[in-house]
Amino acid sequence: MRGNSQKAGVLLLQKRKSILAVILSVLLTLSALTVSLAPAVSAAAAQKSAETEARAVLDKVGWNFKSAYNWCVKNLKYTKHVPSDNANYGIEKFACYGFGNKKGNCYCFSACLYEMGKLLNENIHVVHGTVPYRTGGSGPHSWNEVIRNGKTYVCDAEFEQESIQKKRSYTNGYMFTYGTKGTWKYSNIKRVN
Fold this sequence. Notes:
Elements: H1 2-61, H2 65-75, E1 77-78, H3 91-101, E2 103-104, H4 106-119, E3 123-132, E4 138-148, E5 151-155, H5 157-165, E6 187-191
Parallel strand pairs: 1-2
Antiparallel strand pairs: 3-4, 3-6, 4-5
Helix pairs in contact: 1-3, 1-4, 2-4, 2-5, 3-4
């Protein structure tokens, strides 16, 4: 009798180990699936959040493009390297950071204006390229292009904010054309969207 109960105990233990192995396998599979879906989910969440933030700003300042632009100039504090100097960080992520923290680099400025411009049905693009440094050389920069009546206009809220702070003679960063006297010399121009 005792031998039978020992065998039954061993069989029960083996069944439990098998069940645990199956459960562990399922959990590992689900964990891998969750990790592979995480970037897609976070990108979708960032898009929804950026749009929600853009709507909230437009509800405050008015649903017109000039008001959206002015909000960027007056409410975003330029902060170098924040949140990232990697242009591939993502428009939605830059916009979320800008809206949420009221600061950021040029990528945040252009992303916030882009998100509001989309809601206003503007033909708007985020552009990456380079601008010259006063000390020589050039560095990466981001701004917006708006297409109206077949003509391309530059909107560079960060340029305007910096120009006002440094008391330059030309401070308008709203709806000018490339090559306008007093603006930056934009080069290596690439539309991101």
